[in-house]
Structures are given as structure tokens and as C-alpha cells.
Task: structure prediction
Amino acid sequence: MYRDIRSWASSVDMMIKEKPEYLVGGHTRPIIGGEKIIEVMTNYRDAIRFVFDKTIEGMNKGMTPDELVDYARLPDRLAEKDYLREYYGNVEWAVRQIFNAHLGWFDGNPTNLFSLSPRQEAIRMAKLAGGEAELLQQAQRAVKSKDNQWAAQLADHLIALNPDASEPKLIKAEALEALAENLLTATGRNYYLTAAQELRKQAE
Result:
């Protein structure tokens, strides 16, 4: 479900106009004091609007979601605020949501109009690697060297090739656990850990 970003920013504006003395947020610590609340809410609103405006600007330049993720990063003056850190939400996810809400699933790359299925792509990846056994070794090396995102992606290919194999699931579980350890966003971290737990159970 898409949360309308402009309405979100406008709702913060409405709260600012009320000049509150107490603010109890859903995902943050309570704030006491009108001056501090106005400062925090103004920066919060500005951050929301910046991400939206910058994403739309990039979309109008023909950027894909992957390109927009780097283009629409918060400026330092906002990103350095502790209360704007990505504890719950994530700027990258917001950028992708904005793109999808306005332009749909197609990212503009014609290659992605009719992509190969995960299994068909995995078959070709295994051939490029020199076989499924070599692809497995590459995944093992990636997780040992802490190249965890790549390890997880290689494990996905291996799981697509052989859904019943245990080793790729264990590799992916280890990679996800490592990714979770370094992720500030609680929702993403919890999803990594839950998925890893399920993979370990499947591998038993």
C-alpha cells in the first residue's frame, strides 16, 4: 500500500501550525517544548518533501529506481539529525515506492519487459560460473569474505536450481544474518532475521 508522501508532509505542516507543547510519536521518543517540537517537525517535513521532490526530479530525467536511490539521498544537514536516522523507515524504500506509485512496475529498461524466470537465469549463471558446483563455491567464498549481499544473491540462484538443497539455504541464512547485524532499520533487520530462521529450519 502506498502512503501518499505529499499528504504525509502536509499533515506534518498541519501539526506544526497547532504549535504543540507535547509530541508523542508512534516510532520515536516523546518531545516536550514547543520550540524543540517545531524544529524537529520542520526538519521531518523538509526531509519528506526533499525525498519526494528529488525522486520526481530524477524520474523526469529518465532515471531508473536503482539510479534514483543514489540521486535522492538526504542532504547532510538533514541526514545528520539523530531523529531522522533510518530506525523504522528507509529512504531507499521510500524512493522505490514513489517511483512505483507514479510510473508503475516498469523501470524503463526494455530488458526488464520480459525477464527470464529465476530458474532460467540461474541456469545461465551456473554456466557462466563453470557449473553449479563452482557457483556454490563462489557463494561460499562470498559469505566467508563478508560480501553478504552478493552471497545472498548467488544463493538465490542455487536455490532456484535445486530448491531441496540445504547448503544454499544455509549460505543465504548466514548472509542475511550478517546483513541484519549492520542494518539500522528495524523492520528490514527483523525481516532478514525471520527469513534466515525459516531457511535454517528448511535446511534441517
